[in-house]
Design goal:
Length: 218
């Protein structure tokens, strides 16, 4: 598996360079297919999406296309994804995204996709590959309702996006969350990302992140 778990996708030059290395192509040649289901479950101003999409379009020079996994059969979705180098999964409401993966059957082909393609997650697009943390995360930090009882659980961590950003949480909240789970908790700012490259240890690229386990900061 080759995965980038970010709070804001390809937000910085070090993350972009890590993406080039995982894909094995220069950024101007990378073809991207976008999964954008999570935004459908998110209310409010979506200008952040426009800004992130603009940045992505300016950064990546190959094809940039969308796939609607709710509108097409799985074989069509898989065929379209196979034609791209990289799957870019945007943020929004993580429970809605996970529920969509489950309901459409996309979770059944996800492991195969991750074996073949690089995945770049942005916020919810990262959280959904990891384990679901305590309900208090959604209700107190992200102000979202609890809608599904599990995420995909492919990466054995709890991922918390937007550290020290819009949602205004920090060390104390992270300690409390990590004391409620046996898994490591990774909280990342919008300028950091976790690099997953096969069986290699998880590597954090960028600035401003916290790792905690058992109620203690590591």
């Amino acid at each position: 598996m080759k995965i980038i778990l970010g709070s804001c996708g390809l937000s910085t030059e070090p993350i972009i360079k890590a993406c080039e290395e995982l894909v094995g192509k220069k950024r101007q040649d990378i073809n991207i297919i976008i999964i954008n289901e999570a935004i459908k479950g998110e209310s409010g101003d979506h200008r952040w999406f426009a800004d992130e999409l603009r940045h992505l379009a300016e950064t990546i020079g190959g094809n940039l296309e969308f796939i609607d996994i709710q509108a097409h059969p799985l074989d069509y979705v898989e065929r379209r994804i196979r034609e791209a180098d990289l799957v870019y999964c945007f943020g929004g409401n993580t429970d809605y995204l996970a529920n969509t993966f489950i309901r459409t059957g996309f979770e059944k082909i996800l492991s195969k996709i991750l074996e073949e393609k690089v995945w770049v997650g942005s916020s919810a697009g990262s959280c959904v590959l990891c384990h679901k943390g305590p309900a208090s995360i959604q209700r107190t930090i992200y102000k979202e309702e609890y809608d599904v009882d599990h995420y995909m659980g492919i990466i054995p961590i709890v991922f918390l996006p937007h550290l020290h950003g819009y949602f205004k949480f920090g060390e104390e909240e992270i300690k409390q969350i990590s004391s409620s789970t046996d898994l490591p908790v990774y909280a990342l700012s919008d300028n950091a990302a976790i690099i997953v490259n096969g069986d290699n240890p998880l590597e954090v690229v960028g600035e401003d992140y916290i790792v905690a386990k058992g109620g203690e900061i590591k």
